[in-house]
Amino acid sequence: MSISAEAAKQVARCFRDDAGRTVAALSRALGDIDLAEDALQDAYLAALERWPRDGFPAQASAWIFTTARNRAVDRLRRERSGREKLRRLVALEPAQRVAPVGENDAMDVIPDDRLSLIFACCHPALGLEARIALTLRTLAGLTVEEVADAFLVPHATMAQRLVRVKRKIRESVIPFDVPPAGQLPERLEDVCTVLYLIFNEGYAARAGDRLVRRELCDEAIRLGRVLNALMPQEPEVMGLLGLMLYHDSRRDARTAADGSLITLARQDRSAWDRAKIDQANALLARASLHRTAGPYQLQAAIAFAHARAETADEVDWPAIAELYAHLERIAPSPVVALNHAVAVGFARGAQAGLGALDRLRTDELTEYHFYHVARADALSRLGRTAEARSAYEAAIERTQNDAERSHLRAQMLALSRR
């Protein structure tokens, strides 16, 4: 089957926009994510075959949903089982594809279908990492590899975890229903984590030939705005949205015309989006009135320290190092510890930074390419060229993003010329 590039592009766009919502709706009816994903895959294969020949439907999302539902119905009939699932699935109309099966007033509380489904997927009956990983995989559309990288675990390990959590949902009949309005705060932390990880994957794509996946950044910020409007008194939601806006304000300055990476220290700060920075400043100021500094507020404050400096030389690194130390106390993680060590290196010198990095050497971080990038930079500033080159090689070996790999090779080549 020969598919034109334009046809494949249009089907891919439909998948990106609607696959997560369709899987979630089918999963609620079936109680079986694997069957829902298989049915959706069949529907998109059918679209690739039929749309270029028959013309693209006026309502592509409804076409995909109906086809996926019919494929699932056919499979259930062939298996002569799952009569209750079949009844619920047949009753599920395209207009209901983003609504839960049965009555639930919480859908009216959340004014966005995708955000409501993120709340639905973050079910407390599942483990913390499991529910977040599942949401990223099924609703945000991240690959297993991208989800694994977000949690700093081997790809095979994450694949096994996702298989186990899907089995638990199927066997325990865990519903994908949006909780009542009064229970939304119980899932807020998970939802914020999902939005943050979606944004991170867009802001620094872990694989492929693009450094930035703009559609993921835009969607995470859009959902952050909806969440902030839904829960306007939650300081951590303000902090999260402010953090994403600070980072996104630098989007156009992060890459050159040829798509190559421009590091923060070398970016043209006049190209930063001042309107987004102003919005983030206002959010951070509002959040600070609550006097409960949470992880997202602290990270937003770090981003503010970069945004307020007119040049890279004016960045207040001692203040940033202290903010990271606070963040490490209340929300410790390998990545936070790594960022703290980097900040120490700029606040107190490369030798102090290298010492902090070497004390962090763990299996998790030694497979994380940014750890080796940080060591390469510190070693380079200390004039230890051969060791810096080895660190760059380790980083290149562990990155899957072509643009980032090209940048690291250029850095290593420049090091060799010194």
How would you characterize the overall build of this protein?
This protein has 418 residues and is mostly helical. The chain contains 21 helices and two strands. It has helices at residues 5-30, 33-54, 60-79, 83-91, 106-109, 113-121, 128-138, 144-150, 155-172, 184-203, 214-230, 235-248, 274-288, 295-308, 317-330, 334-348, 350-358, 363-366, 369-381, 385-398, 402-417; strands at 207-208, 400-401. It has a two-stranded parallel ribbon. It starts with a helix and ends with a helix.
Would you spell out the secondary-structure blueprint of this structure?
Layout: H1 5-30, H2 33-54, H3 60-79, H4 83-91, H5 106-109, H6 113-121, H7 128-138, H8 144-150, H9 155-172, H10 184-203, E1 207-208, H11 214-230, H12 235-248, H13 274-288, H14 295-308, H15 317-330, H16 334-348, H17 350-358, H18 363-366, H19 369-381, H20 385-398, E2 400-401, H21 402-417
Parallel strand pairs: 1-2
Helix pairs in contact: 1-2, 1-3, 2-3, 3-4, 7-9, 7-10, 8-9, 10-11, 10-12, 11-12, 12-13, 12-14, 13-14, 14-15, 15-16, 16-17, 17-19, 19-20, 20-21
